[in-house]
Design brief:
- The complex is a heterodimer.
- By secondary structure, chain A is mainly alpha-helical.
- In chain A, 80% of the residues lie in helices and 0% in strands.
- Chain A starts with a helix and ends with a helix.
- The relative contact order of chain A is 0.17.
- The model of chain A has no long low-confidence stretch (mean pLDDT 84).
- By secondary structure, chain B is an alpha+beta fold.
- Chain B contains 11 helices and 16 strands.
- In chain B, strands 1-2-3-4-5-6-7-8-9-12-13-15-16 form a 13-stranded mixed sheet.
- In chain B, helix 4 packs antiparallel against helix 6, helix 5 packs antiparallel against helix 10 and helix 6 packs antiparallel against helix 9.
- Classes of the chains: A mainly alpha, B alpha+beta.
- Chains A and B meet through helix 3, helix 5, helix 6, helix 7 and helix 8 of A and helix 1 of B.
């Protein structure tokens, strides 16, 4: 039960002051941003989530980004729908999307959905800026934040609990 | 030269994450490979039992993912209404499923074959899932119409039966009038006889008193005067009584006139009472064939209703996704599930006779409006029923168009009874028949015709009629009919259908029965009147004889009185004859000599 409550806090500290490099954290955050923006329940979102979990990136940052951008993404739905409609109904692009849809597993990808396609393109568009911003932020912020937070016994205890959890101690 | 060791970069993949997931995927694939058949079997049984409310059994399921073939062996779905019989049974169902289309979120069956299809076959074990309380049968929409027809026809029949069985004789006025006369005559006779006796007694008394008074005329003068008055009164009464007796023949004439009036009333009564309302041939058709037509129609409606539950509506289902809109690319919209072609083969029983059938089911689609052809089912039967059934369900447009065409040129129908066996029924002997039906359902609007021609003898049955003669006449009314022809026109909606039945049975039976009954009733009326007249004549004859006898008897008795009064007159006044007029008798009495 304690783990259930502590785990999100541990993940937050892990994302902020973990041992991963700023690059890994930025990658994790950017991939999480994409998963967060996308409507769930389609192969595209599942595939990006699988990539996030499979790659050696900061998963905690990724999950944090999923939580943040799942909430934020709802505000972009209108824009995403318009963008998706524009792309899916474009005479130039439509044959391509139709071909994708007609491919095996194509209907499961959700790429014929305006919100999915719109959010995917918004996510791709924001990917590099978010990656750069996250990397810079973590490069400069992490040492200071680590120094500041590790002064607190609670944080040290939580981080220790994280290490213990990683060793299989609950 | 010292070679610098390149630091080992961490692997890009988190293998500790990937490997367990890959293992899970492998397990899932293996599970699907080895557990798919039981899973499909369970799904068929579970969904089937939920849908029909009775046991569904599957002997074996075999799937081949590589070949895309699904084989279901020994499928049996029990009939929820008859637990010891199957609704449908199939020895083997083989479907060729397009595996590539499954990855495109579609189920496409290119080809299939359902073998050993049987309907209403026997079961060795009960098909009940659990004991459920019997649901009350909902009344059919046609029930009021057939109930009215049945009420009308049985009402007519009950009316006829009632008229036959009613004691009409007791309701006639003439016999009552005769009875009244018979009752009144003895009273009249007794009264006249009593008066004659009184007159006799009075005369005797006057005679005795006069003889006493005559011995002493001076003292008896006052008494003689009194006797004169008494004699005058007696004479008046004698005249009245004689007049009444003389009037007896005239009274017989008056009685006969009253009986004539009563007879005319009786004739009018019988004319009104035995006038039977004509029976409507259409009502009779509905009464005789309505139940059969209703049964077929209700069964058809049930099957159509069941089919409509499984066949999706013509509108595209609203997307369930709340975010965004699914774009269906033009020209590529295809139904999620499509059965292109399934061959059917099986056997069934019709009226206890075996028949085999083969069929073809094509273009079954989950979104029929996305498919270019309508669903078609074509069945060809041989054996007891040699015919063709074609069903087409078209959901491609806004309004659904369904059609059912049946063409059975040769059909052997068993013996059956139309109507109510306890009232009026028509039995149809076994015979060859042909059946044609063309039923269309456009939206909710039902239209079509069902035609049945059968070469069979018909016989009417009237067990409720106790009068053998009228029963025989009704039974003979259909003797010459050797064909049963019925045409049922359908209209209205599937929920509230209306039917119009045209048949040769109704008019022929109605005409035969009406003519026979009319003739029978006329004969009966004449026989009744003749019987009444005979009784009246007999009674009146007896009455007249009694009157004549009484007249003679009373006249004789009064004659004795006349003699007595004559003697009195001679005693009082010599030999003056006594006339009937007693005043003369009084005047003939010479009372002056008593005054001396």
């Amino acid at each position: 039960m304690l783990t259930l409550f502590l785990r999100p806090v541990r993940m937050l500290f892990q994302a902020l002051i973990g041992n991963d490099t700023p690059r890994q954290t930025a990658w994790g955050f950017s991939l999480g941003m994409m998963v967060g923006l996308l409507p769930k329940g389609n192969l595209t979102a599942i595939a990006i989530a699988m990539i996030l979990c499979s790659l050696r990136v900061n998963r905690a940052a990724g999950f944090l980004a999923i939580a943040i951008f799942s909430y934020v993404g709802a505000f972009f739905d209108d824009t995403a729908h318009r963008l998706g409609s524009l792309l899916l109904t474009s005479p130039t692009l439509q044959p391509m999307f139709a071909a994708i849809y007609d491919k095996p597993l194509g209907p499961f990808s959700g790429l014929n959905n305006t919100a999915v396609l719109g959010q995917l393109f918004i996510g791709l568009y924001l990917f590099y800026p978010v990656y750069r911003a996250a990397r810079v932020t973590m490069t400069y912020l992490r040492p200071r934040l680590q120094h500041y937070l590790m002064r607190y016994k609670l944080v040290r205890w939580i981080m220790g609990a994280e290490i213990g959890a990683q060793w299989g101690l609950e | 030269m010292m070679r610098l060791k390149r630091p080992k970069l961490p692997p890009i993949f988190r293998w500790q994450y990937v490997v367990p997931r890959l293992a899970v995927v492998v397990v899932v694939v293996l599970t699907v490979r080895f557990c798919l058949d039981p899973a499909i079997r369970w799904a068929i049984v579970f969904s089937g039992e939920s849908a029909i409310g009775a046991k569904v059994e599957v002997a074996d399921v075999n799937t081949s993912l590589r070949g895309g073939e699904l084989t279901i062996t020994g499928l049996a779905a029990a009939n929820p209404g008859k637990p010891m019989r199957n609704l449908v049974e199939s020895s083997q169902i083989r479907l060729e499923i397009d595996g590539a289309q499954l990855l495109r979120k579609r189920v496409v069956v290119h080809n299939g074959r359902i073998e050993g299809l049987k309907f209403d076959s026997e079961r060795t074990a009960s098909g009940d899932l659990e004991i459920l309380p019997d649901a009350a049968d909902e009344p059919s929409a046609l029930d009021p119409m057939f109930a009215a027809a049945q009420e009308s026809a049985t009402g007519w029949f009950d009316d006829l039966t009632g008229r036959m069985e009613q004691d009409l004789l007791g309701s006639l006025a003439t016999p009552q009038m005769v009875e009244e006369l018979k009752r009144r005559w003895p009273e009249q006779y007794n009264a006249l006889k009593s008066r004659a006796d009184d007159l006799r007694a009075k005369s005797k008394q006057i005679e005795a008193t006069f003889r006493v008074a005559k011995k002493n005329p001076l003292r008896g003068m006052q008494q003689v005067e009194e006797l004169r008055k008494q004699l005058a009164a007696t004479e008046a009464e004698l005249r009245t009584t004689l007049a009444e007796i003389k009037a007896l023949p005239d009274q017989a004439k008056a009685d006969r006139a009253a009986i004539d009036v009563a007879r005319k009333q009786d004739e009018q009564f019988l004319r009104e009472h035995l006038k039977l309302a004509g029976i409507d041939p259409d009502e009779l058709n509905r009464y005789l064939l309505g139940e059969t037509a209703s049964g077929y129609l209700e069964q058809s409606a049930w099957w159509i209703d069941q089919a409509q539950k499984f066949i999706p509506k013509n509108r595209v289902a609203a997307p369930t996704r709340t975010r965004g809109t699914n774009v269906l690319f033009g020209g590529r919209r295809q139904p999620a599930m499509l059965i292109e072609r399934v061959e059917l083969a099986g056997d069934a029983r019709f009226d206890g006779q075996a028949m085999a059938f083969t069929g073809l089911l094509t273009d079954v689609a989950s979104e029929p409006q996305l498919h270019e052809r309508p669903l078609q089912l074509s069945i060809r039967s041989t054996g007891a029923v040699d015919g063709q059934l074609t069903v087409e369900l078209d959901r491609r447009t806004e309004i659904a168009h369904d059609s059912l065409v049946i063409d059975v040129p040769k059909l052997n129908l068993a013996h059956r009874t139309l109507g109510r066996t306890d009232k009026l029924a028509v039995t149809v002997a076994p015979g060859a028949a042909s059946l044609k039906a063309d039923i269309r359902l456009d939206g909710d609007q039902l239209a079509g015709t069902i035609e049945l021609h059968q070469s069979s003898t018909l016989a009417a049955q009237t067990p409720a009629l106790r009068d053998d003669r009228i029963a025989a006449v009704i039974q003979e009314s259909l003797t010459g009919v050797d064909r049963l022809e019925a045409k049922i026109a359908l209209a209205g909606t599937l929920q509230r259908p209306s039917i119009k039945i045209e048949s040769n049975v109704g008019p022929q039976l109605a005409a035969g029965v009406s003519g026979a009954v009319k003739k029978y009733l006329t004969d009966r009326k004449e026989r009744l009147m003749a019987k009444v007249q005979g009784q009246v004549d007999e009674q009146l004859g007896k009455l007249q004889a009694e009157r004549d006898k009484a007249q003679q008897e009373l006249t004789a008795a009064l004659g004795e009185n006349q003699q007595l009064v004559k003697q009195l007159a001679s005693l009082m006044g010599g030999n003056a004859p006594l006339e009937v007029d007693v005043t003369k008798i009084g005047k003939s009495l010479d009372l002056s000599k008593f005054k001396r």
